[in-house]
Amino acid sequence: MITRGSTPRSGTYDALVVGAGPNGLVAANVLADAGWRVLVLEAQATPGGAVSSASYLGEDLTADACSAFYPLAVASPAFASLRLEEHGLEWCRAPVVLANPLLGEEAAALHSEPARTVEGLDAASPGDGAAWLRLFDQYRRVSPRLLDALCTPFPPLRPTARLAREVGSSELVRVARLALQSSRRLGEEEFSGIGGRLLLAGCAAHSDLSPESAGSGFFGWFLAMLGQAHGFPVPRGGAGQLAAALVRRLETRGGEVACGERVVAVTVASGRARGVETADGTRYRARSAVLADVAAPALYGELLDARLLPSRVPDDVRRFQWDPATVKVDWRVRGGVPWRDPVVRSAGTVHLAEDVDELTRSSAELATGAIPTNPFVLVGQPSVADRTRTSAGHVAIWAYTHVPAQVRTDPHGVLRGIWDETELDVLADRLEARIEAHAPGFRARVVARHVMGPLDLARRDANLVHGAIGGGTAALHQQLVLRPFPGLGRPETPVAGLYLASASAHPGGGVHGACGWNAARAALRTSSGAGKLMARALVQLQRHLGGSLQGSPMP
């Protein structure tokens, strides 16, 4: 891996990748596998983007700086194709995938064994275990082709056709109905008790969708069933080990990663991307492609000359909707969290929500710019799965919650959205109180605390704009062919040889690598004779859909 100072002052590569997040590193690996000479340019001092580790809880205790567990990575065909286990990656799983403690009742729990999940749901509400199995059986029937379809640029004609042949049109229609449901409606249709409903709605809350939103049922079902099938695994040694495996694999194929190199412009000549320029004035040339693992507003609003783009793009950039901001807290805890319910102590992931109504109220407050009165809190206990995440009896615990991008009100009249140290400490205290309600004595066990607000997260990874961790809203109006903008719903951009490879592209947020995978495969297709003709047709179509050009003619 190249570090700043040892980087060549210039150079020509087959492809340049802007950003060493998981999508950028997946893209670079795919291109290197094809024999391309690839350079990845990363602004931060280390690769990985939001998939990174930190030592702010002490040099002896690894913290996950941003993302932490990866069900999408183990299920994704993009990651599967890279066989990262051959490059040092080792997955660890907790015995309980997910638990949601309930005051006065046993926790709702998703166990690693389906039979135990069923047993727990039935104990609380007879018949709910059978409902869970129906949903899981449906997932198992459709998941291979569904994952292919989700990880393919739209329209995913071949995977959808295969899915229809294998499961039948009736099953496909039922999946389509589920995909459009709200998580509240799906939960109410399937479960009579609170446990199953909360497991689905809580998983949907990993996105920015309300339990009332169309499509939230799919998110909840899909993530919950991924957890049932694969767990919520963590890399042994911390999140940074996933990025490290991607870099090691890339280097064995001759690829390079240059850190501390912030790209400020994509250079274009004769309507084609020819390279990039970094903040210190260095120019790198690309023979075939530039792949941008950067947020779409940054690519179209900062790195490209607006005169090269269709006239509608600036307005599309303005309309691009981010998901809510995030505040994340890490704790060094003596002996772990003393959860009242023993099953929660064995869970790698914990949701804190009293019921679906509370999730709905919290989502509504976020939508109106209010700090939630009772925020949904997602807690991670990586040491339950990975014993390397302990030291001298201390463990690393993390939690995050969403806050409005622009704070208008706070139920306690304290927070204004400045997110300085004082405000972050206030919100961290509230998160601790949520945990303490289910784990009396937690605060007394805290040895150290580290808090990151929206600005801190954006400084760690420029793609986390305003602390948005999803790369843009998961709402239907900004998904599929509408992601990131209408008319630009594929990896190809209006500039030939330039590809969008970030979570701003379909299929969106989450560590699945599909955005980079799709961009790399598009670049490889375009490099062929037939691919060049198709690419030219796509550029012309995007020009037509996006409006007339403001300046230079398209190729």
Please give a quick description of this structure.
This protein is α/β, with parallel strands linked by helices. It is 39% helix and 19% strand. It has three domains: 10-55 and 240-321 and 470-546, FAD/NAD(P)-binding domain; 117-227, no CATH class; 324-467, Polyamine Oxidase, Chain A, domain 2, CATH 3.90.660.
Protein model, in words:
The chain has 555 residues and is α/β, with parallel strands linked by helices. The chain folds into three domains: 10-55 and 240-321 and 470-546, FAD/NAD(P)-binding domain (3-Layer(bba) Sandwich), CATH 3.50.50; 117-227, no CATH class; 324-467, Polyamine Oxidase, Chain A, domain 2 (Alpha-Beta Complex), CATH 3.90.660. It is 39% helix and 19% strand. It has helices spanning 22-33, 71-75, 77-80, 114-124, 128-150, 157-167, 169-180, 183-190, 194-204, 216-230, 240-252, 296-303, 313-319, 342-345, 356-367, 421-438, 442-445, 454-460, 514-526, 529-546; strands spanning 10-18, 38-42, 53-54, 63-64, 91-92, 96-102, 105-111, 234-235, 256-259, 263-269, 272-278, 283-292, 325-334, 347-352, 377-380, 390-391, 394-403, 446-452, 498-500. Strands 6, 7, 13, 14, 15, 16, 17 and 18 form an eight-stranded mixed sheet that branches. Strand 6 and strand 7 form a beta hairpin. Helix 5 (128-150) crosses helix 10, helix 8 (183-190) runs antiparallel to helix 9 (194-204) and helix 8 packs across helix 10. The radius of gyration is 23 Å and the shape is globular. Residues 548-555 have low confidence and may be disordered.
